[in-house]
């Protein structure tokens, strides 16, 4: 039930523990740093959402709006008062801490199952939510505004979603089906442009470097570096994208798969090409 603050020193080679505190009554599932870096938001299996003052390392607010495990927190890229949360109770909340009643329930349809991950799309009002059965939905936080995109890109639960900061139309997702996928998300259309199947166990997280490099890590004890622009996929790997109109568009882009993976096995690192 604790969170910790770490500093990276020696040119980002060494982690130094700055401070830590335990206030959640169960496992902490997600932590997000608020725009500006002076506060953070955490959530956990105790069904609580906590806002933290990182300078003094204590919680300033505790919210109990969800009815089950709170799975994920996503802080707005530029607005310190806004963040998103999703829970095993099936709901996604938009929070505005400036209000006396800070919670707004967001419509996540056509998401068919419980949400596992949620993330803001930088520079827009859009958010993406990933479900326990592998579906990813992108839609506007404002009601009845913009197109809704639905991607059937995984066969098991989504474990991480991340928009590329330098190219916000690129959305990466990781899953318990041992795959990582990158989707191109435009205003009225979307398509899968990359898929990696080289992990041999759950892909637990991912992170962008620049607008082309994607790092993934998994339960197979491997960290892999993928060059998205050099990767190409065959038509049988393409994803089905469903719009608000329920029209299904099957992308058939013929390309070959190429990625460079950095494998860390605890006994040193080796460069692996596949």
From TrEMBL:
InterPro entries to which the protein is assigned, alphabetical = Methylosome_Comp_WDR77 (IPR052139), WD40/YVTN_repeat-like_dom_sf (IPR015943), WD40_repeat_CS (IPR019775), WD40_repeat_dom_sf (IPR036322), WD40_rpt (IPR001680)
Subcellular location(s) per record: Cytoplasm
- Organism, by scientific name, is Magallana gigas
Q: PROSITE patterns, alphabetically?
A: WD_REPEATS_1, WD_REPEATS_2, WD_REPEATS_REGION
Q: Which UniProt keywords apply?
A: Cytoplasm, Repeat, WD repeat
Name of the protein this chain belongs to: Methylosome protein 50
Q: WD repeats at which positions?
A: 21-62, 63-105
- Can you list the GO cellular component terms from the UniProt entry? methylosome
Q: What is its main location?
A: cytoplasm
Q: Which Pfam families match?
A: WD40 (PF00400)
**Lineage: superkingdom:** Eukaryota
């Amino acid at each position: 039930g604790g969170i910790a603050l770490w500093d990276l020193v020696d040119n980002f080679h060494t982690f130094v523990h700055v401070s830590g505190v335990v206030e959640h009554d169960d496992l902490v599932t997600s932590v997000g740093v608020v725009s500006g870096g002076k506060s953070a938001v955490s959530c956990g299996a105790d069904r609580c959402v906590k806002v933290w003052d990182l300078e003094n390392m204590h919680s300033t607010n505790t919210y109990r709006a969800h009815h089950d495990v709170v799975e994920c927190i996503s802080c707005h890229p530029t607005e310190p008062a806004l963040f998103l949360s999703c829970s095993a109770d099936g709901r996604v909340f938009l929070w505005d801490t400036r209000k006396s009643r800070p919670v707004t329930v967001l419509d996540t349809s056509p998401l068919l199952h419980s949400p596992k991950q949620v993330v803001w799309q930088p520079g827009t009002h859009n958010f993406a939510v990933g479900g326990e059965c592998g579906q990813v939905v992108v839609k506007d936080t404002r009601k009845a505004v913009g197109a809704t995109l639905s991607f059937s890109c995984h066969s098991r639960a989504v474990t991480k979603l991340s928009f590329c900061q330098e190219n916000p139309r690129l959305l990466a997702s990781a899953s318990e089906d041992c795959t990582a996928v990158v989707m191109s998300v435009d205003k009225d259309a979307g398509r899968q442009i990359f898929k990696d199947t080289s992990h041999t166990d759950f892909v637990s997280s991912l992170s962008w470097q620049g607008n082309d490099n994607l790092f993934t890590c998994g339960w197979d004890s491997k960290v892999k570096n993928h060059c998205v622009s050099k990767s190409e996929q065959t038509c049988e790997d393409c994803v089905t994208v469903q719009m608000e109109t329920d029209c299904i568009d099957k992308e058939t882009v013929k390309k070959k798969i190429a990625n460079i993976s950095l494998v860390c096995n605890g006994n040193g690192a080796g460069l692996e090409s596949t």
